[in-house]
Design a protein that fits this description.
The complex is a heterodimer of chains A (158) and B (272). Helices cover 31% and strands 16% of the residues of chain A. Chain A has 158 residues and is α+β, with helices and mostly antiparallel strands. In chain A, strands 2-1-5-3-4 form a five-stranded mixed β-sheet, with helices on both faces. In chain A, strand 3 and strand 4 form a beta hairpin. The longest helix of chain A is centred in the last third of the chain and has 14 residues, at 105-118. Chain A is globular. In chain B, helix 9 runs antiparallel to helix 10 and helix 10 (229-237) packs antiparallel against helix 11. Classes of the chains: A alpha+beta (158), B alpha+beta (272). At the A-B interface, strand 4, helix 3 and helix 4 of A face strand 1, helix 2 and helix 5 of B.
Chain lengths: 158, 272
């Protein structure tokens, strides 16, 4: 079966690759572009660790057909840092000890970015809702919630 | 295994391919078909898509609301006119799933998913489909009963009744994990009131049978009566009639039968 040409923007940079029919975006990012920040978790849309932004909207890359992102803009954790500096969300995660094993962290950070890009001052409930599609296997949700609220400049309280 | 992706400008072209190729699957939001491909489902040899704007159209102006099959749950939540469908839409997945999953795909989602369809079943929905026979409307109950045979058809849109009041439509999803989690059971009730009495009650249940079903015995217990404690108790005690739940990781069939009446009573009583 012939390869399909695919072009899109990846963290602000134009990329052109060839994919097999039916390839999902997660595989395209990891194996064809070398961006290993979105992780493979369940492959079923249940864990959220492969979350990326497509045209600014949170999507699961494992359930996205690669061909459907032609001409669109993809953001992953790899593009989150701002030059030599960490993104405020990344800084807040480090400061608040919000990563334990770290496997869910890329997906959680993308979910948090999607939230803060849309709503810079979320409530605690809105933060909980925003990361409800991301499973932390270490069950370390409280520091994650606190870190997102800290990045938003909100008060860390129940 | 690589699959062939076929993208069409019109839904009718896509429907034509689906009806002639048993190994083709329609790709909407991807939450069912891509999942199947990730699991190595070799029965799918091609994926069909349509970029037809009709599939993402909303007509919410009349007493019946028509939603294109490609409408996502996030889009439902963004539409003020669809406020009565916000609770069912919000009960599905996390934000990423709601940005991707479509109401057309939800019709095909097996237990413990397909919660939005429970709401549509209570709201007397019809499903517009296109296939080798052309386009036609099917009552949602008939559609669900023949769901396994619908692979060769393309769902174009779903139409449902707009409840006359907020009180008239109620929805409840019972999940172990909040705010997101698969359904233990899902309930929806449409209770139009005429002259103080219920006229045209519809109760729909999810995860209580292989597909979403109506609780007809509970509906009979409500019909023509006022929504008082005795009526609610009668409906709750009839809730299991005609159900055939199965065991899964979220709950046993026994547990589902035990709790469905309890939650129907709470739903009808307006309890949280």
């Amino acid at each position: 079966m012939s390869k399909i040409p695919l072009q899109f923007r990846h963290n602000g940079r134009d990329v052109a690759i060839f994919v097999d029919g039916g390839t999902n975006l997660l595989v395209a990012l990891r194996e064809l572009i070398g961006d290993m920040t979105p992780k493979f978790g369940c492959g079923q849309g249940g864990c959220g660790t492969c979350s990326v932004l497509i045209d600014g909207e949170l999507h699961l890359s494992c359930l996205t057909l690669a061909e459907t992102v032609a001409g669109r803009s993809i953001e992953t954790l790899d593009g989150m840092k701002q030059g030599p500096n960490l993104h405020p969300l990344q800084r807040a995660f480090a400061d608040n000890f919000a990563a334990q094993c770290g496997y869910c962290t890329p997906g959680v950070l993308m979910a948090a970015k999607a939230l803060l890009d849309r709503n810079p001052s979320p409530s605690r409930d809105e933060v909980v809702e925003a990361i409800s599609g991301n499973i932390c296997r270490c069950t370390g949700y409280e520091p994650i919630i606190n870190a997102i609220l800290a990045a938003a400049g909100g008060r860390v309280s129940a | 295994m690589a699959v062939t992706v076929k993208t069409f400008a019109s839904a009718s072209e896509a429907a034509g391919v689906l009806s002639s190729d048993r190994s083709a699957r329609y790709l909407g939001g991807g939450t069912l078909v891509m999942r199947a491909l990730n699991e190595g489902d070799v029965s799918i040899s091609s994926v069909v898509r349509a970029q037809d704007q009709a599939l993402t159209r909303i007509d919410a102006s009349g007493p019946r609301v028509t939603l294109g099959a490609g409408i996502t749950f996030a889009r439902v939540l963004a539409e003020r006119d669809l406020g009565f469908l916000h609770a069912p839409a919000r009960s599905i997945g996390g934000p990423a799933v709601r940005n991707m999953g479509t109401i057309g795909g939800n019709l095909f989602a097996p237990n413990p998913y397909g919660d939005f369809t429970v709401a549509l079943l209570a709201l007397d929905a019809t499903v517009a489909v296109a296939g080798g026979f052309g386009a036609r409307d099917i009552p949602i109950e008939e559609f669900l009963q023949a769901r396994e045979r619908q692979a060769g058809t393309l769902v174009l849109s779903v139409s449902c009744t707009r409840p006359v009041s907020t009180e008239a439509f109620r929805y409840r999803k019972i999940a172990r994990i909040k705010p997101k989690g698969g359904s233990v059971i899902t309930l929806a009730a449409h209770l139009p009131i005429s002259g103080g009495r219920i006229a045209g009650a519809r109760i729909a249940l999810g995860s209580m049978a292989p597909t979403q079903i109506r609780a007809r015995a509970a509906e009979r217990a409500l019909e023509g009566r006022s929504l008082d404690a005795a009526t609610i108790a009668a409906a709750a005690s009839a809730a299991t009639e005609g159900t055939s739940p199965s065991d899964n990781a979220l709950g046993s069939a026994w547990y589902r039968r035990e709790i469905v009446g309890v939650h129907l009573r709470r739903l009808l009583s307006g309890q949280e």
